[in-house]
Design goal:
Elements (H helix, E strand, L loop, with lengths): L4 E3 L10 E3 L7 E9 L7 E9 L11 H15 L3 E2 L11 H9 L3 E2 L1
């Protein structure tokens, strides 16, 4: 990856300053979030960031355990049952998530 050069403004007749950047990134940042709504109350956003480095073999995305932990945290913060509407991501449809939801009556998927 080549380094990025950004230019800023300068008064007429003067040299425009050049901002140097080394171009090294710190890895990938992934975010999972739940938008929580309850009638008569403020909406909430419960999220969980994950930073992956450049190591070979490191996990790149969220596993079902990460989503489970996010749902447990939402349940603890909201203090009531949680109803989840998900897309068809393979981790969301996994048997482990379905089994976990079947074991806990506060979680409906």
């Amino acid at each position: 990856m080549t380094s990025h050069r950004g230019r800023t403004w300068a008064p007429r007749g003067k040299t425009t300053p050049v901002v140097q950047f080394n171009g090294a990134s710190r890895g990938r940042v992934t975010l999972a979030a739940l938008a929580c709504y309850k009638a008569g109350e403020r909406s909430r956003l419960i999220y969980r960031p994950r930073v992956q480095g450049h190591c070979l073999g490191s996990q790149r995305g969220f596993t079902w355990r990460d989503y489970r932990d996010l749902l447990v945290r939402a349940h603890l913060q909201l203090g009531g049952p949680v109803v989840v509407i998900w897309d068809n991501l393979n981790v969301h449809r996994s048997a482990d998530i379905r089994d976990y939801a079947a074991e806990h009556d506060w979680l409906t998927i």
